[in-house]
Write a structure and sequence with these properties.
569 residues, alpha/beta, five-stranded parallel beta sheet, three-stranded parallel beta sheet, 24 helices, 46% helix
């Protein structure tokens, strides 16, 4: 929101600025009709109302020491002022006066703030600020070092055809690590102020594997676009579909669905063009084109790798904290860029790895790279992983297998409880761009990095899952911990024998209410720092349960009547 100072801006430039502003703020007062100022003020009023009608922008009127009915009905001073304007007016000016009166009538009908002479203006100002903050779209975090973004955004914006009135869906696809999320985040920041209702759904693929996750995204979509958080609660997927169609079919919205890989989930979130009102824009990201084609999006934008010049700039922004290679490093930098195949995530990670290292270390790292059998992103990223010390390795693997998306402060306490120097380790991972900490303190990691970490754990013992340091797959857990193979159709029974070899069990997460336990069931707990168990079937924890190292305990939907048969150790 910007103030328009009389005489400092033409009406045309004012209108252009108004169109790009998310929230015009209109202040009506009796002095706006003083002859020397009134023409300019009334023209600006017309622009405000035009923006409201043409672009559905919200306008907040402030009636300062004037009754809204006077503005609406143009009585008293307003009637006198318009009579003066009409005096000796030619036909062109009479046309302007009609537009002014219509705009003022419309402004007087709007709900706003009535500031009377005896009002506490400071309180009203606070109310206005709260309303503005609740209306202006949030600004998302975007990497400050991004390069080559302008041309990509220009192409995407042109394909969105924002000025057209129909509903348009655009797909964004490309390899993991190519920069899809970064691009659409920058796109959101660029165009969100042109929509009153917006929603940005992130990590959809990972977090909607179960119906509860998909329901959460349906809920977020409705909460964001309707502004009714806490007023509407969904219980079933089909209920969410109906609410989205019913509530948004007449509403102009901007929706981003980031990283989705399942047609069913997509159908239940943004199923058809007809679900949304005229002028709506839906942007969907996906690694491959097939799902986007099947969903009949209007256009698919395939993100290409950076050209060599832009790739070198991106790499140097991390390796040297500038856009050009340091003295004596140009040839080495070009080798790294070519090896990384101009993939943004690989450039970012390798640049952070080589930051402040000498030529000898660079050559050593490049030699390691030459030994990697192919150019796939996971193999490139493993070079950065190999440079971590033991503690950093342990933390990184824990994040990938268990704590991606978790709150960093809770995880820090859990890791410290296991004897790791968590803060130091986490800082090292952030510095190497292996993880990021979001503004709401959640641990974020690129999918390719998480996949690489899980592959590392898998290779600890490919043929025997029970010999691996971490288990996260349903079938592997069943194979190791139960007396029979698990399927969704069978009751799962954990046995004590299965846990016997886990003498250093640190983290135990059970999120399956089908798990049944024998009455004499016990599990190692001396080193346990994190216990999450949904659907715990016994009346108490094991009698020999040790809570000395326990930092996090969460027991949901359980049968527990007492924590333990005896005082916890």
């Amino acid at each position: 929101m910007k103030a328009f100072e009389r005489g400092k801006r033409s009406h045309q430039s004012s209108y252009k600025l108004l169109k790009n502003q998310g929230l015009p703020l209109l202040c009506s007062q009796k002095t706006m009709l003083i002859p020397n100022a009134s023409k300019w003020c009334l023209e600006e009023l017309v622009k405000f109302i035009n923006c409201k009608e043409e672009r559905e922008q919200k306008v907040i009127p402030i009636f300062y020491h004037v009754d809204p009915s006077e503005v609406r009905n143009q009585r008293e001073i307003y009637k006198i002022a318009f009579s003066r304007h009409k005096k000796n007016a030619d036909e062109e000016k009479r046309g302007k006066i009609r537009r002014w009166k219509t705009a003022m009538r419309e402004a007087g009908k709007l709900a706003g703030y009535d500031v009377k002479v005896d009002s506490y203006e400071s309180e009203i100002i606070q109310d206005i600020i709260k309303e503005i903050c609740g209306t202006i779209p949030m600004v998302l975090d975007v990497d400050e070092k991004i390069v080559g973004m302008d041309s990509r955004l220009e192409k995407l914006v042109s394909r969105l055809e924002i000025q057209s009135n129909g509903v348009r869906m655009v797909g964004v696809c490309g390899l993991g690590g190519i920069g899809k999320t970064t691009i659409i985040t920058a796109l959101y920041n660029k165009i969100s102020n042109q929509f009153r209702s917006t929603s940005f759904l992130t990590n959809v693929r990972e977090e909607s594997t179960k119906d509860s996750g998909l329901l959460k995204f349906q809920q977020q979509l409705l909460d964001d676009t309707l502004g009714v958080k806490g007023q509407l609660t969904l219980k079933k997927i089909h209920e969410g579909v109906k609410e989205i169609k019913d509530k948004l079919s007449s509403k102009k919205v901007l929706v981003f669905v980031d990283d989705i890989d399942d047609s069913r989930r997509l159908e239940h979130l943004v199923g058809k063009h007809s679900w949304f009102g005229h002028g709506s824009r839906i942007i969907i990201t996906r690694r491959k084109k097939d799902l986007l084609k099947a969903h009949e999006v209007d256009y698919i934008y395939e993100v290409d790798k950076l050209n060599e010049v832009k790739a070198l700039q991106l790499f140097c922004s991390y390796a040297f904290r500038q856009c050009l290679p340091g003295k004596g490093y140009r040839d080495l930098s070009i080798q790294v860029v070519r090896y990384a195949d101009r993939l943004p995530l690989a450039l970012k990670v390798l640049g952070s790895l080589l930051f402040r290292k000498g030529v000898k270390d660079w050559k050593s790292e490049l030699k390691k790279l030459q030994e990697v059998p192919n150019m796939e992103i996971t193999n490139v990223l493993k070079i950065s992983y190999d440079g971590l010390d033991h503690t950093q390795n342990m933390i990184f693997l824990d994040f990938a297998c268990f704590f991606k998306g978790a709150h960093v402060e809770i995880v820090t306490q859990v890791l410290d409880g296991s004897g790791f120097k968590a803060e130091s380790g986490i800082n090292a991972l952030v510095d190497r761009c292996l993880i990021t900490i979001s503004t709401n303190k959640k641990i974020e990691m690129h999918d390719s990095l998480a996949q690489m970490d899980k592959e590392i754990v898998y290779k600890e013992c490919p043929n025997e899952s029970g010999e691996r340091s971490r288990l996260w797959k349903h079938e592997d857990v069943c194979r190791v911990l139960t007396i029979n193979t698990c399927t969704s159709e069978h009751e799962i029974k954990f046995t004590f024998e299965a846990f016997k070899r886990m003498t250093r069990l640190r983290v135990l997460i059970v999120n399956n209410n089908q798990v049944q336990l024998f009455e004499d069931f016990t599990f190692p707990s001396h080193d346990l720092t994190y216990l999450y168990w949904a659907g715990y079937s016994l009346a108490s924890l094991p009698s020999n349960f040790h809570a000395n190292s326990l930092v996090f305990l969460y027991l949901k939907d359980n049968n527990i009547k007492r924590l333990s048969e005896r005082k916890l150790a």
